[in-house]
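Sequence design from tokenized structure. All designs in this work follow the same two-part layout: the structure record, then the generated sequence. An example of the structure record is given first.
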């Protein structure tokens, strides 16, 4: 059985923008730590529940660490700062867009009514932070100046802060609004409303270049497990919702159904990285580090996904 050993291996792009990092515990075991239980990350824990990591020869333990702040933008920023260029690469991407809505109190009828008030996010640098700033700019408002941005926690915590009035708005993946029961609300704007959409590296396994070079077979097996878990999600709705409910600790049917449906539409069958989305993040990071020559190809290597597609693995998994 392959034992994956890495200092820092996986990041689930901001979802929460989720984080996955692998830390070596000892020679016989490794840990997968993830920071979001939202449905876009379901393939990671479905792979555990269905024993797909073991099926593909991986010895992995999955641990939820909600306080993580590592995101794709942080990875990119770190790469820019690294001597000699990027030290990490995204090996694939299972969701290539930022599926967020800006939920506001029902009394908020226009963007101008947000001025002087607060929007809640999980943590600085998270996907919700990216989404909040994106929405405010789209609404012609200046983040932190016109509208305060408060760190209040994950989707469930944001809904609670919204219900108590601590915040009047929060960016959220579709479905979370159903957790804000008893509080009048509306969707002010959604990334789905953007004319050209919003390509964004959202759920992407990421590893160090050195680890990928030395452990390509192990990383390939990981992708195989996640691809099969994604197929299971797409083709086994009720069982997937049960697993989603277990990890999210929610039994709100509207939340589970909405979360399932939205992610089902977005999960990539062939999880290649959307280079346009990654390019936008690279340019933003480079702008903060004058003189850097970082390029998308420096932090993306999805050749293993291409191998799996060429070998027919993905077609076999999705064969009716």
């Amino acid at each position: 059985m392959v034992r994956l050993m890495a200092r820092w291996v996986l990041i689930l792009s901001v979802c929460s923008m989720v984080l996955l990092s692998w830390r070596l515990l000892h020679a016989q075991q490794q840990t997968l730590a993830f920071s979001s239980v939202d449905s876009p990350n379901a393939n990671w824990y479905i792979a555990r529940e269905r024993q797909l990591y073991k099926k593909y020869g991986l010895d992995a333990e999955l641990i939820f660490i909600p306080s993580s702040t590592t995101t794709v933008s942080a990875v990119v920023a770190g790469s820019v700062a690294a001597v000699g260029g990027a030290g990490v690469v995204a090996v694939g991407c299972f969701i290539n867009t930022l599926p967020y809505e800006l939920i506001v109190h029902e009394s908020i009828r226009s963007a101008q009514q947000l001025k002087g008030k607060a929007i809640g996010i999980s943590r600085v640098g998270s996907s919700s932070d990216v989404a909040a700033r994106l929405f405010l700019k789209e609404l012609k408002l200046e983040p932190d100046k016109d509208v305060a941005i408060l760190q209040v926690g994950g989707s469930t915590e944001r809904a609670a802060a919204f219900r108590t009035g601590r915040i009047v708005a929060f960016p959220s993946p579709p479905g979370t609004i159903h957790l804000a029961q008893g509080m009048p609300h509306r969707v002010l704007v959604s990334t789905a409303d953007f004319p050209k959409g919003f390509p964004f590296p959202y759920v992407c396994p990421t590893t160090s270049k050195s680890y990928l070079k030395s452990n390509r077979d192990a990383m390939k097996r990981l992708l195989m497990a996640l691809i099969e878990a994604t197929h299971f999600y797409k083709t086994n709705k009720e069982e997937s919702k049960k697993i989603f409910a277990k990890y999210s600790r929610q039994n709100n049917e509207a939340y589970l159904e909405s979360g399932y449906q939205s992610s089902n539409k977005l999960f990539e069958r062939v999880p290649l990285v959307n280079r346009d989305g990654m390019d936008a993040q690279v340019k933003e990071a480079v702008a903060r580090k004058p003189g850097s020559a970082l390029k998308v190809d420096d932090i993306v290597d999805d050749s293993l996904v291409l191998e799996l597609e060429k070998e027919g693995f993905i077609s076999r998994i999705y064969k009716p």
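Residues 1-29, 67-86 have pLDDT under 50 and may be disordered. We note this feature because it recurs in several other targets discussed in the main text.
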